[in-house]
Structures are given as structure tokens and as C-alpha cells.
Amino acid sequence: GAVVSQHPSRVICKSGTSVKIECRSLDFQATTMFWYRQFPKQSLMLMATSNEGSKATYEQGVEKDKFLINHASLTLSTLTVTSAHPEDSSFYICSAAAGGMSSYEQYFGPGTRLTVT
Amino acid sequence: AQSVTQPDIHITVSEGASLELRCNYSYGATPYLFWYVQSPGQGLQLLLKYFSGDTLVQGIKGFEAEFKRSQSSFNLRKPSVHWSDAAEYFCAVGNAGNMLTFGGGTRLMVKP
Q1: pLDDT tens digits for B33-51?
Q2: Which of A36, A104, A107, A113 to mutate to probe the B interface, most B CBs <10 Å?
Q3: B2 CA to chain A: closest CA distance, Å?
């Protein structure tokens, strides 16, 4: 149980285009989803937190107009990188948390490698 | 604000040797503590977690960790390392708002 998927696993896009990454909780309802960014050989940095049906809460320094997050249902959140540039190339990981006591635990997706050329 | 420190960026151990990865945290209340493992290009897999109760917690793959409040530590241990354990290990502290703060990670290399 508690499986989170991400799609695509890898994506290459041209500078100036937008790319959407999907994060799905496959066997539970995720009241909260998180988006992280990980640079090579570094730790995970939280970008934003989203609750179903609400606007996402972005961490300081993360451009909300560049990284659009939608959490339209209890099983799906999307991250859209708009007008991507090479510096946006990174490994993006989502996680999902269910409600109740287990809300202290996040279940992570396999990550999406974004390369902007 | 909560924070996590993993003092060792790299650790190399011989296969079959014991392992201890250090983690120190800073948090004002009772912490929720986690250890995750990440293989190259992959997401994070939960090894174990501490919420309350017994301070020695058992996890998957033969790992265990001990919560020591007096030392603000949550070190990860394994009595005998296997080559497949080579990966990046992250310690994290969580709060009641689901927020996780990760340490910088420790890269484990295993010598044959």
C-alpha cells in the first residue's frame, strides 16, 4: 500500500516551453501533497505544499508563477514548470500524506528528471 | 525552526562490517524522525520512523535506529552491511503539519 507514482520519469524540453509533471497516490487519498527539488548530490528542498482544493503554499524563494501547482483531487497533483530554462533542470520529487495519525508520514514518488536544453 | 544535520557526507565500509550513520536534529517539541534511502535516480524509500514509545526502532532491510533525546540524535545502524546497501541515506524530522526537513544526506559506499 501507499504507492505514489510520477509521470513522466524523464522529460527533455526546449528552453521557453512548459512541462507538466503528474503525481498520483494510487491506493490512498492524499489530503496533502508536497513537491521537492533535488540538485545533483544534494538533499531535497521543499518547494511547495498543496492541499486538495486549496492554493499551494510555496516556500520562500520559489516562484509561484513559474512553478504552478494544482491539487485538483485527493489522488492527483500536478507541477507545471512554465517557460523552462536550463537552470530549471533538476530532479523533482513529489510526496503525499494521508490524514489521521499517518499524516506524519509522507510517501514519495520515484521522481522526475527534467532536462531543459 | 527545525533542522537536521548529518555530519558525514561520505562513508565507506567493507561488506559485512557494521554501519552507523549519524543524525542530529533540532526541534522544539517531540520530533517525528525518519530515515530514508535513495538509490541513484530514484525516489525515497522509508527505512524506519520514530513517533513515540520504544526509542529503538526496527526498520526494513535489517536497519535500526535509536532515538536519544538527551543527545538530539537518531543514528541509523546495521550490524552487517551488504553491497546492495550502497546508496544515499537521508535523515528527516517532521512536525504535526506534515512538514519534513531533511538532512544533507550521507552517501554510503561498500567495499567488497
Answers
A1: 999 999 988 889 999 999 8
A2: A104
A3: 13
Contact by Cβ (8 Å): A72, A105: no
Residue reference for cell 483531487: A73
Within 8 A by CB and 6+ apart from A101, the residues are none
| DSSP run (H or E) holding A58 | strand A57-58
Query: Using beta carbons and an 8 Å cutoff, which residues of B are at the interface with A?
Result: 32, 34, 36, 41-46, 49, 51, 90, 94, 96, 98-105, 107
Q: List pLDDT tens digits, range B80-106.
A: 999 999 999 999 998 766 678 999 999
Distance separating alpha carbons of residues A104 and B48, to the nearest angstrom: 13
DSSP A69-108: EEEEETTEEEEEE-S--GGG-EEEEEEEE-SGGGGG--EE
Using a CB–CB cutoff of 8 Å, tell me whether A6 touches chain B: yes
